[in-house]
Automatic annotation (TrEMBL), chain B:
Protein name: 1-deoxy-D-xylulose-5-phosphate synthase
CDD domains assigned to the protein according to its UniProt record, in alphabetical order: TPP_PYR_DXS_TK_like (cd07033)
A GO molecular-function descriptor: 1-deoxy-D-xylulose-5-phosphate synthase activity
Pfam families tied to this protein: Transket_pyr, Transketolase_C
Organism: bioreactor metagenome
Domain Transketolase-like pyrimidine-binding, chain residue ranges per copy: 3-168
Keyword Lipid metabolism appears in the UniProt entry: no
Length: 273, 307
């Protein structure tokens, strides 16, 4: 891909990160860390890979996106606002009473395809969408972002076996492997071992990438969508809190408040990325 | 005349699927028992074998409904409602999705398999969910109606089905309506409000009471939720007390629903149901109904205590 397009996508990722800070606001706890770790992937999906149209939200052959790690929805809200699904000003009202932008994804939000937040269910919902698309002869692809901590949920592995049994090559799981769950490092708290090896052993075609390298991300998305006969998994090595130095590689900002000073610092650092 | 509820269910599901190509079926390795096998045989591309994984099955059904399908997801009642409760709440009911969950072999009807396979809690857990419709049909005719009604409702539905041959109580003229009580026998002194298999047994109890000079009205509630409170109050109007009859725990099921509905203008009540216990194996269904106090004699005795 040409460098200008990659540069454009990096600008979109920057806009997503700024949108996350906007949605987080002040005096509201929010899931900064996991939203920042998947921001580049979310930007690549919405502004490069997926067929979608905010003016025709329900077109039958749109690609589907599910944020199975629902707490990271701030990244999706920021991308949807940037894409024009709703006014950017709405981001400020995230998690306030009656707002379309709830603490976890709900279908009332334009552009959100499924309710998630109870971890471990998004990949199964994606399987249903992929099966429905195949039954109707529609060529869309279903993309599901999961957290690495989320993989402790047993239902994920029911879904991993099911997608393999149904040979769903129109489904891709993207694991945002930031290595940190709510209480600490996944390797310390609940070690999931070789995540890529597990997906491979279950019959998936797997890719492993740097989840902040836009060139690697778009190449993996392209390659995954071309695979035939088996589902695909992209294991993305990421940094929790990526772009905001005080939130990087710590569980402290998994779900936390920002002070005014921290907010200003976060914006400065994102603009300097 | 006796007709098996599972057979009736399968016939109607197949008829529905022939008319409506959006209807699809999922099962967790029990398609022969639940009768979802009729879809696999006739429309193999519209049947999804989900293996023994009920949680995944329910969320997959949610995903299918998001593509415009009308998924019917099947297992035994205890597994269909219990194992994936969170998936039913989060993936299906919260987003108001058009998923139909069919809980087969409910109550004590899987008599041989014992406590793990007998479901006394599903009416309670399913009716507590906002937006869920809960049907508990009494015979083959109503089972067929419930299949059609479930497909006509745009939202989540739970259908609770017995696995046995049961007496036919209704016919094609019976005016079933979601949420409405159906007076199946007139009577003046006491109301026997029953659901599912217990409606036929309540009819027998009314006969028994008649021999003792007591006039019992029998009211069938084929819908546990939503419940038309005003219609129920009207249906029980004039009696001195109510006996609720259910093949389900007395906590949270039909008895509770009736008590909640009538609490603003209460009548004396007794509840015939499972008394906070689990099931067990037996050589036949009737043996368990006797053991757990779900007979016409139990209902009649409860009614007599109210008078």
């Amino acid at each position: 891909m040409n460098p200008e397009r990659i540069a454009e996508l990096k600008e979109k990722a920057r806009a997503v990160r700024l949108g996350i800070i906007e949605a987080l606001g002040l005096e509201k706890r929010g899931h900064l860390g996991g939203s920042m770790s998947c921001a580049d992937i979310v930007a690549a999906l919405y502004f490069y890979k997926m067929r979608h149209d905010p003016k025709d939200r329900f077109m039958p052959d749109r690609d589907r996106f599910i944020m199975s790690k629902g707490h990271s929805v701030l990244a999706q809200y920021a991308a949807l606002a940037e894409a024009g699904y709703f006014p950017k000003e709405t981001l400020k009202k995230t998690k306030t009473l009656g707002c379309i932008l709830q603490g976890h994804p709900e279908r009332e939000t334009p552009g959100v395809e499924a309710n998630t937040g109870s971890l471990g269910q998004g990949l199964s919902i994606g399987i249903g969408m992929a099966l429905g698309g195949r039954l109707d002869g529609l060529g869309y692809h279903t993309w599901v972002i999961l957290g690495d901590g989320e993989l402790a949920e047993g239902q994920v592995w029911e879904a991993v076996t099911a997608a393999s049994a149904f040979k769903l090559d129109n489904l891709t799981a993207i694991v945002d492997m930031n290595g940190i769950q709510a209480v600490g490092k996944t390797c310390d708290r609940y070690d999931l071992g070789d995540i890529r090896g597990k997906f491979s052993a279950f019959g998936w075609k797997t890719f492993e990438i740097d989840g902040h390298d836009m060139t690697q991300i778009v190449r993996a998305l392209d390659e995954a969508s071309e695979v035939k006969g088996v589902p695909t998994a992209i294991i993305a090595r990421t940094v929790k809190g990526k772009g905001v130095s005080f939130a990087e590689n710590t569980h402290a900002y998994h779900n936390n408040l920002l002070t005014k000073e921290q907010q200003e610092q976060a914006v400065r650092e994102i603009l300097a990325m | 005349m006796l007709i098996n509820l599972r057979t009736a269910y399968g016939e109607e599901l197949l008829a529905l699927a022939k008319e409506n190509s959006r209807v699809v079926a999922l099962d967790a390795d029990l398609c022969g028992s639940t009768q979802s096998v009729v879809i696999e045989k006739n429309f193999p591309e519209r049947y999804f074998e989900m293996g023994i994984g009920e949680q995944n099955m329910i969320s997959v059904a949610a995903g299918l409904s998001l593509t415009g399908k009308i998924p019917f997801a099947h297992s035994f009642a205890v597994f269909a409602s219990g194992r994936p409760f969170d998936q039913i709440r989060q993936s299906v009911c919260l987003p108001k999705l058009n998923v139909k969950i069919v809980g087969s072999s409910c109550g004590l009807s899987d008599f041989g398999d014992g406590a793990t396979h007998q479901s006394f809690e599903d009416l309670a857990t399913m009716r507590v969910l906002p937006g869920m419709t809960v049907f508990c049909p009494a015979d083959a005719v109503e089972t067929k109606w419930a299949v059609r009604q479930a497909a006509a409702i745009d939202g989540p539905v739970y259908i609770r089905l017995n696995r046995n041959d049961l007496p036919v109580l209704f016919d094609e003229k019976t005016p079933f309506e979601t949420g409405k009580p159906l007076v199946v026998k007139e009577g003046s002194q006491v109301a026997l409000v029953a659901t599912g298999t217990m409606t036929a047994i309540a009819m027998e109890a009314a006969g028994l009471l008649e021999t003792k000079g007591i006039s019992a009205r029998v009211i069938h509630l084929g819908t546990i939720k939503p419940l038309d409170t005003a219609a129920l109050a009207k249906a029980v109007n004039g009696v001195r007390g109510i006996v609720t009859c259910e093949e389900h725990t007395i906590y949270g099921g039909l008895g509770s629903a009736v008590a909640e509905a009538l609490c603003a203008a209460p009548l004396p009540m007794r509840m015939v149901g499972i008394q906070d216990r689990y099931g067990q194996s037996a050589v036949c269904y009737d043996e368990l109904l006797v053991h757990y106090g779900l007979t016409k004699e139990n209902i009649a005795a409860a009614a007599e205590k109210l008078l």
